[in-house]
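Subgroup meeting minutes
Present: P.N., E.W., G.H.
Scribe: E.W.

1. P.N. recapped why we're keeping a running log of single-chain structure predictions: easier to compare across weeks, and new members can see raw inputs and outputs side by side.
2. G.H. added today's entry (343 aa).
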Amino acid sequence: MTDIPKLAEDIAAGSRRALARAITLIESTRDDHRAAAVALLEALRRTDPPEALRIGLSGTPGVGKSTFIESFGMMLTGQGMKVAVLAVDPSSARSGGSILGDKTRMERLSRAPGAFIRPSPSQSALGGVARRTREAIALCEAAGFDVVLVETVGVGQSETVVAEMTDIFVLLLAPAGGDELQGVKRGIMEIADLILVNKADGPLKETAARTRADYAGALKLLRKRPQDPEGFPRAMTVSALRDEGLGTAWDAITALADWRRAESHWARNRAEQSERWFRAEVRAGLLARLDREPEIRAALERLGAEVAARRLSPEAGAAEVLALMGAGLARGDESLDAPGVSP
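Output recorded in log:
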């Protein structure tokens, strides 16, 4: 039995062991653990923890995300900041397992006193993040971290989900030619606050400068967003290997964050994120009921067979299941109550 008040107290005191235990708790799919996780998050919310700067980071395969995060994190911890890294590893569609090797790749940062690294499997969640990444961010904030870095599984159109739970979204790219520009979709370009061309060193330095210029030109063609001051979004070059350009990138991130706070975009964005989080939890709870409620599960099997035999259309079958769920909610069936949520 988890002692929720004690766990919340330890997290608020900055205990990394308690934070790790809490993240394990919120990632559990057991009903009793889910109820405890909801109680823990509510207890921590009442303590009104300070807001951390949430930074989402995505990038093409081989761009050096782990190297960048380690160098960037070491720079921030060297300035006295506490940095949490939530790294999401893709899960196997066949076995459901993940390698979870990010902490191994960030050996220096994992030993830094002011850093906390937590790899998590993406499991069935889409968008490059794990099912409970939002809640893990809230736990890190409650533990007093100044910066929370969320590393996604890799660049793609679905990576836009991470922008819905962070304050600043950074897209990391490698020096390349025009094909690279074609390979990154417009959707992720439109949400990027900062594009960093990594590996701007040695023989790739000039190539990186040209790539930065290409992306800077592409950004000018996008419609200006109300949450951006003059000069944003912008493209810059960095070298994580040689620790070059990291300070300038951090200055750009903090300048953008400060402007958004001053112009009320920060508070508005956080409020919209909370509402999206709420709606996502409702949708996830409804989907969970499909597997948990015997009557609905039996209807799914029966109607699924009807659809497979082409005696019923998928649309009509889905409508019948939804009607059954609606009837259960109208009756107030206890079996349809979401775990950990009081009626």
